[in-house]
Design a protein that fits this description.
Length: 390
């Protein structure tokens, strides 16, 4: 479909700056030339896209809001959101790579790291020469990370880390991992674990039907000696990893709009070209209902994200507001991917069209960074003041 058909039904462009639009255009062009031609093959073959992280670094998609002195671009939160949207129009795996590197690895090092840690890691993460992973989830503790078992002991001149993390994006590729583990008092702290440390392994998780162009794996720590200078010094407690999730969930709220746009534009074009009963299928009311509802839901999601971005820029976005946007927008996108696939009939199951790939990817997106139900409970708790988790 021509890129000029990408929807802006409520003239939201009028609310963006020239810089926002320039950033969007450059990421959009890169997705068209670098991602679109190879994404179906990568997903079909369950392989990652070669050099993806370095390419993301070149276009400034890694840590866009990290200060320039550490290799970031010092951009605002709306720019970050727009970048995520354009990347996920290509594929959720591409957005995932940028999300993890930016919000889950660079963000905690920038917020909670020492000056030495920031200088040592951030510029290499921003350029994509170094790949980061984020270890919070464990085999026995996903929605409830506070019960994690991974722990470290103080051995005088180093820490000794033991445990395992599961479902970790980019684990098999990572050069470093920001790992959340309990200290001897049972308090959660962050450690930067480097690939070369003895006892650290990253087995790959095979046979996924979702996010097939992204590598997922485990982080296993068997008596890993972590130098003391690799502890993130400025945060103690679960709020450390959860604050990183605020940033990543915000980016996902924007990102999934991109996946929905790709499905919407594809279905709209197809429905105008495909004829049945002597007429384009777009002329049938049932198909128009789908198209009109897709556009309505995309427009609502765009407005939600833009205002959330304004709140984030003003440091006023609450975790519960972010949960609402993540939950609403991922559901919006997965519904559009599934419904738009039907509009293509048999062709909808083919790799030439993006719907099956987006729908399958979004099954992960609706699960990671807090499941659909967990985000509902966060909203419920915020509104009622009653904690329904425990
Ligand atoms: P709870 O007792 O409510 O809170 C513990 C402490 O954390 C604080 N807190 C937050 N701080 C910052 N941001 C947030 N969003 C926060 N939510 C809570 C809270 O104030 C408290 O602080 P303090 O100082 O009083 O100690 O926590 P809980 O144990 O009851 O758990 C509830 C919670 C919120 C953890 C749970 O609802 C939740 O969010 N579970 C979901 C877990 C999750 O999202 N995991 C994601 C793993 S990473 C991932 O999926 C990456 S995918 C990457 C990709 O490929 O894109
Ligand atoms: P569980 O927590 O076991 O949940 C199972 C079901 O129970 C869900 O439907 C859930 O909503 C429901 N449930 C749980 N508690 C409650 C409750 N109190 N009330 C009602 N229902 C409840 N994690 C990382 O740390 N780093 C990563 O990079 C990362 N990448 C990922 C990549 C992929 C492809 C996937 C699939 C996951 C990734 N994750 C990562 C893990 C992800 O965050 C977890 O899968 C997610 O938080 C859910 O945890 P779980 O899978 O253990 O499910």
């Amino acid at each position: 479909y021509p890129l000029t058909t990408i929807p802006d039904y409520y003239l939201i462009d009028d609310l963006l700056t020239d810089e926002h639009k320039l950033i969007r255009q450059s990421v959009r062009d890169w997705v068209e030339s670098f991602v679109m031609p190879k994404i179906d093959e990568a997903a079909q073959n369950h392989t990652d896209i070669p050099n993806l992280m370095k390419e993301l670094g070149k276009i400034g998609a890694l840590g866009p809001y990290i200060p320039e002195q550490y290799g970031g671009s010092g951009l605002d939160q709306i720019s970050y959101g727009i970048i995520m949207q354009e990347l996920e129009r290509g594929d959720s795996a591409v957005r995932s790579a940028a999300s993890v590197q930016s919000s889950l690895v660079m963000f905690p090092i920038n917020e909670y790291g020492s000056e030495e840690q920031k200088h040592k890691y951030l510029p290499h993460l921003a350029s994509g020469e170094m790949i980061g992973a984020f270890g919070l989830t464990e085999p026995n503790h996903g929605s409830d990370p506070g019960s994690m078992e991974t722990h470290f002991e103080d051995k005088g001149d180093h820490y000794l880390l033991n445990g395992a993390k599961m479902w970790i994006t980019n684990a098999p590729l990572c050069d470093i991992a920001v790992v959340w583990a309990k200290n001897e008092e049972g308090k959660v702290q962050g450690l930067i674990v480097e690939r070369a440390f003895d006892g650290f392994t990253t087995p790959e998780t095979h046979n996924k039907w979702s996010l097939r162009a992204s590598k997922t794996g485990e982080l296993v720590f068997n008596n890993v000696k972590v130098p003391k200078e690799n502890l993130l010094p400025k945060v103690v407690g679960l709020k450390g990893p959860l604050s990183c999730l605020n940033s990543a969930r915000y980016g996902i709220s924007w990102g999934v709009i991109g996946a929905a746009i790709d499905c919407y534009c594809t279905a709209l074009q197809y429905s105008k070209e495909r004829k049945q009963f002597g007429k384009p299928i777009a002329s049938f009311q049932l198909q128009q209902k789908k198209i009109a509802e897709f556009l309505t839901e995309i427009t609502k999601a765009q407005l939600l994200c833009l205002q959330l971005g304004n709140l984030k820029n003003a440091h006023k976005a609450s975790p519960a507001q972010i949960s609402m946007a993540k939950r609403n927008n991922v559901k919006m996108a997965i519904d559009i991917a599934r419904e738009s696939r039907q509009m293509l009939g048999g062709m909808g199951i083919m790799g030439e069209f993006p719907m099956m790939r987006h729908a399958a990817n979004l099954e992960s997106v609706i699960t990671y960074e807090g499941t659909h139900d967990i985000h509902l409970l966060i909203t419920g708790m915020d509104v009622t003041g009653i904690n329904a988790f425990g």
